[in-house]
Amino acid sequence: MNSNGSSATLPNDSNLLTLKQIASSIGCSYDRLNGFAQKAGVRTAVGAVDVAGVKGVRYPPEAQELFALLIKAQDEGLVHPGTSEAFLARTQQEESNGQIAEYPKGNGQGQIARLTKGGENAESLVRLMEAAIELTAQRIAAQVLPPPEDRLIRAEEAAALLACKARAVGRYVKPARPGVWKRSAILSYIQSLT
Fold this sequence. Notes:
mainly alpha; two-stranded antiparallel sheet; 4 strands; 48% helix
């Protein structure tokens, strides 16, 4: 269906592709691609055309790029068919406001970075960002955090802290729920004794 929702016969019908052809060319299943193609906003964004005399809609060759973008974004967990219309609208707005640069990542797969207009130093910016991400990941991996001070504990652990029997913990500290106490409440009670 074209942007005005009517059928059209284009002089260059032979250049139009079926959804199966697009699915085959970008390497995904027809059913997966059809989930996106069923959304009216996606059909409009990719330029779907309802051609008279043929079954189903046809797509211009440029639609392959947008469908490939949707599939890649879905693989990365950024989009699903229900959010695809908004995703394409936001992507097209970002493209009109800036430029898109492809850069290689350590594993050799291309990644897309959106940069503002005039991104002369795009490669150095991307390398700097990658280094910062890697350094942050290393610091997080090296940091061993102690268990949180305030957590829920069972009667046995609370009894060990209070030096009493598990059945008697409730006499000293009110439980958060039956059989479970806040560790901070137990420690506060112990501190109040000294």
